[in-house]
């Protein structure tokens, strides 16, 4: 297992866990942390023994944003040439479903990292926001695009233009959160959800994630065409035969590809 400086990496069964571990900076996403998250996630993604990835932080902070101290003295040309957030593109293209398990602060880049996941499961202590406006910048890892798609233009504008934070309940009402759970139960609940996803047929899970992604990125007619192709392709898999035979036989499915 690779040695990492700012994350903890663990595998339980078919679930890969990435825990952000920069407590002194509330998991602020500096260049080391970004690189390590992307490397660990892409390694899990390449492993057919992994059917779900969980990304989490501490009880106090999922992540308090991009590292402000690292960015403070950068100029336009530094940001333009170095493109410090470019590697997040790889995280956004993972085929394996990702669950963000969020307790405490998920602000700025932390909220944006959660939004790159497929599910956001929040502790009742979670606080979401895009406070970049208070720093004289705007969100830079997809916040202005993913937040309105998740919660609508008007709620997103409220957060992005005022810089305020919202708690877990408001976030769930707005549609940013898949489920809220008591803080003490967060990792147990997330493990159960991750294991459930990881027990399905891996190629079918990939196809479902891909189709959900298409819903975010394409117009309806194109998305429906994409879905029809992916649905039809599932009938070429032995796991479709097994899933439907298991239903007829009133027994749990034993998928081959997992
Ligand atoms: N970058 C760098 N360091 C950070 C940080 C960040 N985003 N957030 C917290 N820290 C550091 C603090 O500087 C502090 O370090 P020191 O002890 O060395 O001073 C340590 O973490 C603990 O933080 P606080 O003492 O501030 O803790 P608190 O409980 O009083 O406050 C907080 C918590 C409200 C989250 C506050 O830390 C905060 O406002 N953080 C910044 C949030 C923010 O603005 N995020 C957006 C960043 S910009 C961005 O993300 C751009 C983008 O889209 C890519």
TrEMBL record:
EC number: 4.2.1.17
Gene Ontology biological process terms from the UniProt entry: fatty acid beta-oxidation
Top-rank EC class of the record's enzyme: lyase
InterPro entries: ClpP/crotonase-like_dom_sf, Enoyl-CoA_hyd/isom_CS, Enoyl-CoA_hydra/iso, Enoyl-CoA_hydra_C
Reaction it catalyzes: a (3S)-3-hydroxyacyl-CoA = a (2E)-enoyl-CoA + H2O; a 4-saturated-(3S)-3-hydroxyacyl-CoA = a (3E)-enoyl-CoA + H2O
UniProt-recorded Gene Ontology molecular function terms: enoyl-CoA hydratase activity
Family matches, as Pfam families: ECH_1 (PF00378)
UniProt keywords, alphabetically: Fatty acid metabolism, Lipid metabolism, Lyase
Alphabetized CDD domains for the sequence: crotonase-like
Superkingdom of source: Bacteria
Transmembrane parts of this sequence: none
NCBIfam families: PRK05862.1
Family classification: Belongs to the enoyl-CoA hydratase/isomerase family.
Function comment: Could possibly oxidize fatty acids using specific components.
Protein name: Probable enoyl-CoA hydratase echA8
